[in-house]
Amino acid sequence: MTRPRKRKRAGLTALRRRVGKVQVPVALGMTLVWMLLFKGFQPRWESLGLLVLGFLVSVLIMVLFPMPPITPMPRFHPVHLVRLVLYVLAEMVVASFQVTVIIFTRRQAPSSVVAVRMRTDSDLTMVCTAIAASIIPGTLIVEVNRSERVLYVHMLGVGDDEAVERGRRDIWKLERRFVMALGTHEDIAALRAGGPEALDEQETREGGERP
Amino acid sequence: MNETLGAVLDWVAILCILAGAMLSLVAGVGLIRLPDLLSRMHAAAKPQVLGLVLVLVGIDIRLIPVETNVFNVGTLVLVALFQMATIPVAGHITARVGYRTGRIEEGLMARDELAERLEADEAAAGDRGGDGAAR
């Protein structure tokens, strides 16, 4: 008789631990998707029920399929977020034209794989930068080195050293905008402290102090 | 007044959808014209994203005054969102597999910093690999 009860209790603590791990902001984001799916943004009473139901379903999903937590949680800076979205959209339009020109004029377009070292230490920024670089035409992520924070980016129509440096700077610009829009204060401070060269120096200095 | 506004919105919607369709066509042409897999990935994934977004914007503009029971602006926002979230993943995996299995034209590669890196890794693994083979 005791064994099933013990198992039940162990199951309960496991469940409690899982519920405790639910990240409310993530659940709210999922609720937003739910509302969009079921036309929840109309002034009627059903919308309130949709909101509650969506939140419950989000929590249920996160309990059943736990994911590694997003740490540190992003902080939203609305002004920078709007500027980021506009920048990505503008880049998409400009780069679409560039790729179109390459397609129609040059049959043998040169290309390069460029290693870009991220300047900040957050997974979220790296993922966002990689996604944005993938969406913007002309750049494609071939390989990601997470431990060293290096993105290997394939760039279409990039042949000489000058163009390689320009492409690298474009990715850095993208990263800077993401950090400004979503980063924590430490990330922004690290970015303000200087360009990649300054950060490298800082790293070596810190590494020298640590041992 | 309202009619002119409707006409203007109609024209904007038509232009958006047309531009989107043109971009998708360019993506198709690029698939044929570009030389190797990685370059083709650019054509397949990119102008087509902007093309799809433009088509969706066009439909959005037409939808705002009309009430349908099938889908609305929110649904289209979701379509665009998920397209933007999934295309990088698919593109990255395809590019990675293509690169690792050597389906690239090296003659067109002006600079390849990943190859240098992989060679260094392989040399390091070779040293360790000797032990592994002995075991």
Automatic annotation (TrEMBL), chain A:
Topology term for the membrane: Multi-pass membrane protein
Main location: membrane
NCBIfam families: PRK08965.1-5 (NF006521)
Superkingdom per UniProt: Bacteria
Protein name per Swiss-Prot or TrEMBL: Cation transporter
Subcellular location: Cell membrane
Entry keyword annotation includes Transmembrane: yes
From TrEMBL, chain B:
One Pfam family named in its UniProt record: PhaG_MnhG_YufB
GO molecular function ontology, one term from the record: sodium:proton antiporter activity
UniProt key word Iron-sulfur: no
Top-rank taxon, per record: Bacteria
Matches recorded under InterPro entries: PhaG_MnhG_YufB
Residue stretches spanning the membrane: 12-32, 44-64, 70-93
Assigned keywords, A-Z: Membrane, Transmembrane, Transmembrane helix
Classification via NCBIfam families: CPA3_mnhG_phaG, PRK12674.1-2
Similarity field: Belongs to the CPA3 antiporters (TC 2.A.63) subunit G family.
Name used for this protein in its record: Multicomponent Na+:H+ antiporter subunit G
Organism encoding this protein: Nocardiopsis sinuspersici
